[in-house]
């Protein structure tokens, strides 16, 4: 068999294939040497992967190491410094030239390393988002990475998939595909598997083809892959493509703007200092070098890179907590989230459903998972049969209770099995011929099955008995879904094996039962059936009418214990958790109460929302915590109103129809396990464990990262301010040039880079989830940060200048006064780096070793400073002098002073219990 196929493949290989849409499915399969129900063999697939390469679009935007390096070199700052190198050389100041050059190289390497790290972190995140696909290989269904698809693979697709490659359909059931990515048309088109006559078809008209990047919005099917990777239609236009977006986040943009304003300020400063120096009669050479070093001191050129690293590392940290970030901006926004809207089933609950009771029209049957017994009752077994066949979940018979598919459906399959029904037998006996899939608007699902020709199997017994009673034998339609909607489609009722008309009294009794169960937090599904004639088969709009009511199945889904704690944490952190569910309102309220999410019985349903006026919506939505019987379109209404109230909304979703809501929420959250590809692509963040608690953990992480960004902004800018103050006040006191250009460059290199990155690793503040969310509109200098930076910068600057002035002025004639300024500045900044780590906690209440990178950065900087002061060679290079021990003690005292000042400030903050202010 395989040999024969191998031959076909080689024979065909030479010839160009005709376009697959004008071939029959059989011919396409033949051309690709593959078999419909079987797929390729693993070995053949591996070989084809070698020939065709991975199924991925080659990204054009990815920055290579070289490009990053070049971008660094291009930085204006570095150009200025290089100019300084040449001018120094031209003036025969060779030592200066060499040292500045080395500093430029170190600076460039540091920047390069930083960006490379950030890029790598982003690339790793992107890799995680490659979806898995279902294929047939070696005769069985397998899950593989979309990257490993090859031409000839038999692909299974279903509603919610993003089509992973170009493929020719070989079977299509109600298949609808939205092809906007290729054709721009946003309406879904119907697809089929028949051959098209003629050959002049535009992409949009090739109804038997599916194309990479388009979206399956309905139905399911099988297709044989015809093209992969860059050979797909999407690959041909791949310039339009972007995966995880690298767009600058709002914070990055704000910092870029800050950089520009500081550059402007630097220009002004340069003129001021140059003026001061001119008055003291400095030579133009010195003026030029000083101007350049001032510019370097004033502009925080390392800041954008450090922020990017902090965000990217934050995303990595979130991944460890099962939150996969798809948009870097989400890391920032998470810290500001004020409302978390979450699905109930599976996110707040465990999605471990089990049927606990079945309510038939005349009696109640409780289900004990431990008890298995065969039932002979017509009504009970027909209800269970309906639950088992109107169902896409399958029992994985390999290991007992394991089910594949939707847990709600799985629970029904298991219940039926307990009563002795065998899924595989029933599937052969009553093969499915039509279906109307579940959707979250209708909240129902129906299937149509061909009736058996003979009824010798016992399990089909209820069907045959009823078919005789009803007079129809062609087909049977089975429906299950939300009872309150389903009942409207029921005209008759099956009581104890007899079909009767369903009157209003019975209807009300059923609805009352439904309500009573829901109040206890039970998820209820109604079940119904009817026989259908041949001519009704292709009129799905009329399927769910005139049904015979069978009964209710009630199932429990325990809440996630960790969600209870997460809900509490949310409330404590000023974030409102909101439940949004398709389930019955009373089930929803009961679960919400168990979670501590609400303590009232108030809720709104999707229908309520539809009836309300704009004003009513605006008034009610912000105070409701439970929304039930909601369809995906209602999520948009909820988001809109909340956002108008300036809330920062996180919204979860898993289905195809959730994509718009996920896009318009501030943080769109998709489910990693149960979510569709479409929802994942529309999201900012994916919960790998589908767990509500993970959202809250990500919020906490977002707050930590924002705090840390403020910490290193504070640190870097305080240092820069200190340097400028030194340069401005020195000449005013009559001291010529308190810091030499080389010294400024050195301080700037050592202090800006490494301690700042280390601050990005800082652990969260103790009370980080006790304070309200961040105001997303506040600037980076909000809550007094700007003033504190200036004040602290002035203090650091004055201490440093003061130390130098003392020695310059008191006639000891020590030539070391510049070295004093230089060393004092370094010591003060290192002390400050240690203090900045925590906003309120005393330096002596947290472990210095909990941020080893920072401790190392501080330690190394101090050692280097000693080398610069005491090694004769470096005395020459940096124009320093060995300090006497008393002088070193003075510098240490300066550092201690900085620590004391911040300690007093922190004490004051703690006294005021003002945990918001940094
Ligand atoms: P949620 O996920 O928020 O619980 P769903 O949209 O999944 O809400 O379900 C809404 C309602 O639709 C449920 O209360 C149930 O009655 C019905 N339902 C859910 N899953 C199915 C299904 N597979 N088939 C038929 N009806 C279903
Ligand atoms: Mg659901």
UniProtKB/TrEMBL annotation:
Q: Name one Pfam family in it.
A: Cation_ATPase
Tell me if Kinase is a UniProt keyword of this record. no
**What CDD domains does its record include?**
P-type_ATPase_Ca_prok
SUPFAM superfamilies the record matches: Calcium ATPase, transduction domain A (SSF81653), Calcium ATPase, transmembrane domain M (SSF81665), HAD-like (SSF56784), Metal cation-transporting ATPase, ATP-binding domain N (SSF81660)
Q: What is its EC number?
A: 3.6.3.8
Give the signal peptide range: none
Q: Where in the cell is it found?
A: Cell membrane
* Primary enzyme class: hydrolase
Q: Which GO terms describe its biological process?
A: export from cell; proton transmembrane transport
Q: Which GO terms describe its cellular component?
A: plasma membrane
Instruction: State one molecular function term (GO).
Output: ATP hydrolysis activity
Q: Which UniProt keywords apply?
A: ATP-binding, Cell membrane, Hydrolase, Magnesium, Membrane, Metal-binding, Nucleotide-binding, Translocase, Transmembrane, Transmembrane helix
Topology term for the membrane: Multi-pass membrane protein
What family is it from? Belongs to the cation transport ATPase (P-type) (TC 3.A.3) family. Type IIA subfamily.
| Protein name (database record) | PacL calcium-transporting P-type ATPase, HAD superfamily
Q: Native species of this protein?
A: Desulfotignum phosphitoxidans DSM 13687
């Amino acid at each position: 068999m395989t040999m024969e196929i191998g031959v076909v493949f080689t024979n065909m290989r030479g010839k160009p294939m005709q376009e697959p849409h004008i071939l029959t499915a059989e011919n396409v399969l033949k051309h690709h040497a593959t078999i419909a129900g079987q797929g390729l063999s693993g070995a053949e697939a591996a070989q084809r992967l070698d020939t065709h390469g991975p199924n991925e679009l080659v990204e054009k935007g990815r920055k290579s190491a070289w490009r990053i390096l070049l971008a660094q070199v291009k930085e204006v700052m570095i150009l200025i410094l290089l100019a300084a190198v040449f001018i120094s050389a031209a003036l025969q100041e060779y030592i200066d030239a060499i040292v500045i050059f080395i500093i430029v190289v170190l600076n460039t390497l540091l920047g390069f390393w930083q960006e490379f790290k950030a890029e790598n972190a982003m690339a790793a995140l992107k890799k995680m988002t490659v979806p898995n696909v279902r294929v047939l290989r070696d005769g069985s269904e397998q899950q593989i990475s979309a990257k490993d698809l090859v031409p000839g693979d038999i692909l299974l697709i279903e509603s919610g998939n993003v089509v992973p490659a170009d493929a020719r359909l070989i079977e299509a059931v109600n298949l609808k595909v939205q092809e906007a990515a290729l054709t721009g048309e946003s309406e879904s088109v119907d697809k089929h598997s028949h051959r098209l006559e003629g050959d002049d078809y535009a992409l949009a008209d090739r109804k038997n083809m599916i194309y990479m990047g388009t979206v399956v919005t309905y139905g399911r099917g099988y297709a044989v892959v015809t093209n992969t990777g860059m050979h797909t239609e999407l690959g041909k236009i791949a310039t339009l493509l972007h995966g995880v977006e690298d767009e600058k986040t709002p914070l990055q943009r704000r910092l870029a703007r800050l950089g520009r304003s500081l550059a402007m300020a630097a220009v002004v400063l340069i003129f001021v200092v140059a003026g001061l120096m001119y008055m003291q009669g400095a030579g133009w050479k010195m003026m030029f070098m000083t101007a350049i070093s001032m510019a370097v001191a004033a502009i925080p050129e390392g800041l954008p890179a450090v922020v990017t690293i902090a965000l990217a590392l934050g995303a990595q940290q979130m991944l460890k907590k099962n939150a996969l970030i798809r948009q870097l901006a989400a890391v920032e926004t998470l810290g500001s989230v004020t409302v978390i809207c979450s699905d109930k089933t599976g996110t707040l609950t465990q999605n471990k459903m089990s049927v606990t009771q079945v309510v038939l029209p005349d009696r109640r049957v409780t289900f004990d998972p431990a008890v298995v017994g065969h039932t002979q009752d017509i009504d009970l077994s027909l209800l269970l049969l309906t639950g088992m066949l109107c169902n896409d979940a399958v029992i994985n018979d390999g290991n007992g209770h394991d089910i594949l598919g939707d847990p709600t459906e799985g629970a029904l399959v298991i219940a039926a099995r307990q009563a002795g029904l065998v899924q595989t037998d029933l599937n052969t006996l009553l093969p499915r011929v039509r279906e109307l899939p579940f959707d979250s608007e209708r909240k129902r699902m129906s299937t149509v099955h061909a009736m058996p020709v003979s009824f010798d199997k016992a399990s089909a017994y209820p069907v045959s008995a009823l078919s005789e009673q009803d007079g129809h034998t062609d087909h049977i339609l089975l429906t299950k879904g939300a009872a309150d909607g389903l009942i409207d489609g029921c005209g008759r009722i099956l009581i104890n094996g007899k079909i009767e008309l369903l009157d209003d009294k019975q209807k009300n009794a059923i609805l009352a039962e439904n309500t009573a169960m829901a109040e206890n937090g039970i998820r209820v599904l109604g079940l119904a059936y009817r026989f259908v004639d041949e001519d009704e088969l292709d009129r799905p709009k009329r399927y769910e009418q005139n049904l015979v009511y069978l009964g209710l199945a009630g199932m429990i889904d325990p809440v996630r214990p960790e969600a209870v704690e997460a809900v509490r944490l949310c409330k404590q952190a000023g974030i409102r958790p909101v439940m949004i569910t398709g389930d019955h309102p009373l089930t929803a309220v009961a679960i919400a109460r168990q979670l501590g999410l609400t303590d009232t019985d108030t809720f709104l349903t999707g229908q309520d929302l539809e009836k309300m006026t704009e004003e009513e919506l605006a008034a009610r939505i912000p105070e409701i915590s439970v929304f039930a019987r909601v369809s995906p379109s209602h999520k948009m209404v909820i988001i809109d109103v909340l956002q108008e109230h300036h809330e920062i909304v996180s919204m979860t979703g898993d289905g195809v129809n959730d994509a718009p809501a996920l896009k318009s929420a501030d943080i769109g959250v998709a489910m990693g396990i149960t979510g569709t590809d479409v929802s994942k692509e529309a999201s900012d963040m994916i919960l790998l464990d589908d767990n509500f608690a993970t959202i809250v953990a990500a919020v906490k992480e977002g707050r930590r990262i924002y705090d840390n960004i403020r910490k290193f902004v504070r640190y870097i800018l305080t240092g820069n301010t200190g340097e400028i103050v030194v340069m401005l006040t020195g000449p005013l006191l009559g001291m010529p040039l308190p810091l030499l250009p080389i010294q400024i460059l050195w301080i700037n290199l050592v202090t800006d880079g490494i301690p700042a990155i280390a601050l990005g690793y800082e652990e969260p503040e103790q009370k980080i989830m006790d304070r309200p969310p961040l105001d997303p509109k506040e600037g980076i200098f909000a809550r007094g940060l700007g003033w504190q930076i200036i004040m602290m910068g002035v203090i650091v600057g004055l201490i440093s200048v003061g130390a130098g002035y003392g020695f310059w002025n008191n006639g000891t004639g020590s030539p070391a006064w510049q070295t004093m300024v230089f060393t004092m500045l370094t010591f003060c900044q290192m002390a400050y780096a240690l203090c900045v780590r925590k906003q309120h906690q005393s330096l002596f209440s947290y472990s210095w070793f909990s941020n080893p990178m920072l401790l190392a950065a501080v330690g190394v900087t101090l050692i280097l400073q000693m080398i610069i002061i005491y090694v004769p060679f470096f005395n020459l290079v940096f124009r320093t002098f060995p300090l006497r021990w008393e002088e070193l003690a003075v510098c240490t005292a300066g550092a201690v002073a900085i620590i004391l000042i911040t300690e007093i400030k922190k004490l004051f903050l703690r006294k005021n219990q003002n945990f918001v202010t940094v």
